[in-house]
Design a protein that fits this description.
The chain is α/β, with parallel strands linked by helices. It folds into two domains: 210 residues, Pdz3 Domain (Roll), CATH 2.30.42; 141 residues, 2-enoyl-CoA Hydratase, Chain A, domain 1, CATH 3.90.226.10. The protein contains eleven helices and 16 strands. The strands form four sheets. The chain has a six-stranded mixed sheet with strand order 9-10-11-12-13-16, sandwiched between helices. Strands 5-4-6-7 form a four-stranded antiparallel sheet. Strands 1-15-14 form a three-stranded antiparallel sheet. α1 runs antiparallel to α2 and α2 runs antiparallel to α3.
Length: 399
């Protein structure tokens, strides 16, 4: 039996004030600007697509100019960049209306892991549709605008954009930016429809998270020592130095703890690290290199579909030069990839194009993501029970 619950809520987050509608000539001028500027600025735009094919795709978008609006224009730019095959070259959207709901993917499907506090009973509900379209159909639409050769990369950006109303409108999944309906299956297996109404004046931006191991400390890096397990867990969630607690000081504290407690193993968690500056981790790498923990069976590194950019560089270095065991999922980023990004703004719509200026060959001959030595296919049931399967696997070794 279906229980239909209609809920209204607003969460509008704008990257900047934006209300202008653009004309055909605006779109044509921006397309011509991309045609001349991106090949000049990108370090190697035509590695995977020829210039003629790139220009042919721009000409195709020009042929649609009479029928484009802001959202469909942006989505056509997404499609234009997909065959370039550069995970760092992307479009940054003009404006964002974000529904107050976020998601995580498990082996059973896509589930709600954050939502506005009023609807906490919908946490860990499964997403089965968006605006009356089955989630499988929605996923196929996103494959048109997100590179999908690497499933981790695709999954990360699918979840990132699944609450972005202009992107969904550009794909034709929603008709306007005024409302969106998600069809969910709650934890009691009842079908629930949640409608977010963006015309209300009551704007709420806070959300609550589902209980589970995805909740992390807000700091870029932190550690804890478990005396019962006699292991140390080091969470490194951002490759950025914290001026209030410099990484050099953190690293000193970490290794003083190691010296004091002599743990049997160390776990470095890179699963939720999207990058920054890969050199921040150097003090740790220098110390762990000469440590008794730099030994197979004592040193574990967790990677996942959010491990990207500089965090991936760190993971590759660890895999190549240290005695680690990699646990988790394939990385979002490719081992060898373009990066070190800059950007330019389109003259009329002011959309931003981010592009790569450097090629990183981190492991000659390697293609695609960095794969774990032991792959974990995470379950929502274990998440509900607050069981981190990667950590549990490591803890089970040697028992």
């Amino acid at each position: 039996m279906k229980n239909i619950l209609i809920l209204f809520f607003v969460a509008a987050i704008n990257s900047f004030a934006y209300s202008q509608e653009f004309t055909k000539n605006d779109f044509l001028e921006d397309l011509e600007f991309i045609k001349t500027t991106l090949p000049q600025k990108h370090i190697n735009l035509f590695e995977k697509i020829s210039r003629s094919e790139f220009e042919k795709r721009i000409d195709y978008i020009k042929s649609l100019a009479d029928f484009l609006n802001t959202e469909t224009f942006i989505n056509e730019l997404f499609k234009l960049l997909v065959p370039i095959g550069d995970e760092h070259t992307r479009v940054e959207t003009l404006h964002q209306t974000i529904a107050p709901i976020r998601f995580e993917m498990f082996k059973e499907g896509i589930f709600v892991t954050e939502i506005s506090p009023e609807y906490s009973n919908m946490l860990l509900a499964e997403v089965i549709g968006v605006n009356e379209r089955p989630i499988s159909n929605v996923i196929n639409e996103f494959k048109k605008i997100i590179m999908n050769q690497n499933q981790s990369y695709f999954s990360f950006f699918l979840l990132y954009y699944l609450n972005n109303i202009p992107i969904l409108k550009g794909l034709g999944i929603v008709d306007s930016e005024d409302e969106i309906t998600y069809t969910l299956k709650n934890t009691n297996n009842n079908i629930v429809k949640i409608k977010f109404d963006f015309t209300s004046e009551n704007v709420g931006k806070s959300m609550i998270k589902a209980n589970g191991y995805l909740q992390t400390n807000k700091n870029n890096y932190w550690y804890k020592y478990d005396s019962i397990k006699n292991e140390i867990y080091f969470n490194y969630s951002s490759c950025r130095n914290d001026e209030q607690y410099p990484f050099s000081k953190f690293n000193t504290d970490l290794f003083e703890n190691i010296k004091k407690n002599k743990p049997q193993k160390i776990i470095l968690d890179l699963r939720y690290n999207g990058g920054g500056n890969s050199t921040v981790l150097k003090p740790f790498l220098k110390e762990i290199k000469k440590s008794y923990l730099n030994k197979t069976g004592k040193f574990y590194v967790l990677i996942g579909r959010t491990t990207f950019s500089s965090a991936l560089l760190n993971a590759v270095e660890l895999k190549r030069n240290f005695n680690i065991i990699l646990i988790g999922e394939p990385t979002a980023g490719s081992i060898n990839h373009y990066g070190e990004i800059l950007d330019f703004m389109l003259p009329r719509t002011k959309a931003k194009i981010v592009y790569s200026t450097k090629y990183f060959e981190n492991w000659k001959g390697k293609n695609g993501p960095l794969y774990p030595d032991v792959e974990i296919n995470y379950s929502v049931e274990n998440f509900k029970a607050n069981k981190d399967e990667a950590i549990e696997y490591i803890d089970s070794l040697g028992k």
